[in-house]
Amino acid sequence: MLTVPQPPVHDDVDGCPSVTLQGDSVNGWRHVLDTLYDASFLSALHLRKLGDTLPIVSDVVRIATKYRFTGLRRECLAILGRHFPTSLDTVPQNPRNRPSLEQATAVINLAREIGGLSLLPFAYLICINAVDRDDPSIIYRDLPISFEDKAAALQGLHTVLNAQAEEMFPYAYEDAETATLGCSERCSTKEAFECFVEDSGYLHFFHGEPFDEFCIAHEFLCLRCRNHVNEVFAGGKWRIWKRLPEFFCLAENWEELIRLQDLDS
Hints:
The protein contains 13 helices and two strands, in the order ββααααααααααααα. It is mostly helical. It folds into two domains: about 60 residues, no CATH class; about 170 residues, no CATH class.
C-alpha cells in the first residue's frame, strides 16, 4: 500500500491529501474523534438531557452505522434508549422528563435511517399522545415523518386505543364484581368512569393510575374498589407495553425487534 503513488490531482489540507467522504458531516467526524480520544465523552452524554445529546448522538450514530463501528453504534443506541425506553419500568412519570413531539419525530427519522428499531415504539407513543380534542388530526397533517411512519402511528393509535379500553379500563364499560372484592357499598365502576368513555378516543397510557386524570371517579368508589381498579389499570398497561412493537407493525414483540435491530449493526 505504501508504494502506491498519490493521485496526480487531489485536494490537500496543509500539504496533506484530503479525501471527501460522501454524505458525512464535519461535525459528525469531529464528534466521532471526540469519542475515540476522550473516554469520558460518551459517558457524559448518558447524563445529559435529550436536547443536548440528540444532535451529537445523531451525528455519531450515523457514521458508526455507515462504517460498521459496532461498539460505538451500540453505545449511541443505549444513550438514546434512556429517553426512548424498551422497558415500561424506565418510562418517566413526569411529562417534563419525556421527549417532546419534535424530538420524537426526529428520532423516528433517525431510527429509520440507521435501523434503530428499538427507539420507534416509544417515539410513536409520544406522537399518538399528542392527539387530543384540540388537534385530532396532528399526525397526518403536521408531523415531519414519512407517510409510512404516519400510517404506522395511526395504525398504532387505533390499536392502542382499543387495547386501552379492553385492558386498562374494562370497568368503565361493565361494573366490576364488587361483591367478590369485599365491597359493602355497592360501588359502580361503570358510573364512576363514565368520563373515560367520553374520552376513550385519546391516549391515557402515561398516567400513573386512572384517578390521575379521572379524579372525580375517586369519590364514587370505596377503598377496595379503588385498589381493584388500580390493579387492573396497571396490569393492562403492562400488557399493552409488551405488544407495542406489534401494534405499530414493527415486530411480534420487543425481543424480535431488538434482534432485528442487531442484524443491522
